[in-house]
Amino acid sequence: IIDFIFDDFPLGDSIVVKNNKIPVLKGQDLKSYPASEIVVLAWRYLDSICKKQNEYINKGGKFIPAIQNHN
Q1: What is the rounded CA–CA span in Å between residue 36 and residue 64?
Q2: From CA 62, how far away is CA 42, in angstroms rounded?
């Protein structure tokens, strides 16, 4: 289940998938939510996302890349 999508450059305020409306919020809004595990679909930007989200990470939040880097 996807509760929210966080995007620093959103093209809209929501995405509709099979009659479900998923809110799209700015990345800076993440700090307002309780710490949890976030799946990062833009896995190539994981490092830059984590650098911007120190406050969220310090609260116990975790970022999990959708695709693991197998280098």
Answers
A1: 11
A2: 15
pLDDT beyond 70 at 65: yes
Structure tokens that stand for 68 in this block: 């693991």
Q: What is the largest CA-CA distance in the chain?
A: 39
Q: Which two tokens stand for residue 66?
A: 């959708």
Under 8 Å between Cβ of 25 and 33: no
pLDDT of residue 60: 93
Query: What is the total residue count of the chain?
Result: 71
CA distances from 66 to 23, 37, 46, 63 (A): 19, 12, 10, 9
Q: Which one-letter amino acid corresponds to residue 68?
A: Q
